[in-house]
Specification:
Strand content: 25-35%
Largest sheet: 6 strands, mixed
Structural class: alpha/beta
Number of helices: 7
Radius of gyration: 18 Å
Bound molecules: adenosine-5'-triphosphate, magnesium ion
Oligomer: single chain
Strand order of the largest sheet: 6-7-8-3-9-10
Order of helices and strands: EEEHEEHEHHHEHEHEE
CATH class: Alpha Beta
Distance between the termini: 32 Å
Length: 256
Amino acid sequence: MNQPASADGALIELAEIHKVYQMGASEVNALDGVSLQIKRGEYVAIMGPSGSGKSTLMNIIGCLDTPTSGSYKLRGTEIRDRDDDELARIRNQEVGFIFQTFNLLARADALHNVELPLVYAGRPKRARRERAREMLGLVGLAERMHHRPNELSGGQRQRVAIARALVNEPSIVLADEPTGNLDSKTGLEIMALLDQVHQGGNTVILVTHEEDVAANAERIVRLRDGKIESDQATRRAPRGAPASAVPSGSSPPSGS
Ligand SMILES: Nc1ncnc2c1ncn2[C@@H]1O[C@H](COP(=O)(O)OP(=O)(O)OP(=O)(O)O)[C@@H](O)[C@H]1O
Ligand SMILES: [Mg+2]
C-alpha cells in the first residue's frame, strides 16, 4: 500500500488547521492554526500538556474528524473534497488507529476483534481468520485469541488493539498514548512493536506524555494551546534528517 506521496515528498500536509468546538456561548480553539508536514516513513511523536489538542490533531490526520478550517492533504489530495465512502476506505485501509482506551468490542473475543477491519474490507472469511490469527501470534497472543477483553490484562488488550490496527497493513499508524495505561515492561514491548512497524517502511505518529517514549521517534512535535510550540529532530533521526525538523514557531528556520 505504499503509494507515492505528493511531488514534494510529504505524505501528510496540514496547513493552517483550526478546530473550534462550540460550547454553548463560548468557543474552544482546540487547534489554532497548525501547519505540519510529515513524510512517508517518518516516526513522529506528538507531545504537549493535557488539552493542548493532540487527540484532536490525531483524529483529523486519521480522517475521524474534519477541521473547522484549513487544508489537509493526504498524498497530495485534499481530504475535504473526498466523499464519505472514500473517507471510510481511507480509514479502513490506509490508517491504523490505536486508541488510548483500546476501543475493543466487549462481547467479541480477541480473534473477532482483530478480524473486524477485514470484515469491513470485505475479505473472505477463511482468509481473514487466518490473517487475524497471524497478527495475534505476532503480538504474542496466540494463546489468548478466544479471550474477551475483560478476560485479558491491560497490556494484552492493548496488544489486541495493536493487532487490529495493523491487520490491514496500513501505511500510516496513529497511536494515541498506546503505553499510557501500561506497566513499563509491557510499555517497552508495545514500543518495540511500533519500532518494527516503522522499520517496515510505515509512517508512525505517536502521542505520548513521556519523554523516554517520545525518544523512540525521529522527531518530536510539541503542542501548546492548539499551536505548534516546537518541532525538533531527536537523536534517533536518520543522518541528514529533513530540514523541516527544526524548531518552529517564533524563530524562523535558519537557512539550509
Ligand atoms: N467534543 C468536544 N467538544 C468540546 N470541546 C472539546 C471536544 N473535544 C475536545 N475538546 C477540547 O479541545 C481541547 C483539546 O482536546 P484534546 O482532546 O485534543 O486534548 P489532548 O491534547 O489530547 O489532551 P489529553 O492529553 O488530556 O488527552 C481541550 O480543551 C478539550 O476540552
Ligand atoms: Mg488526548
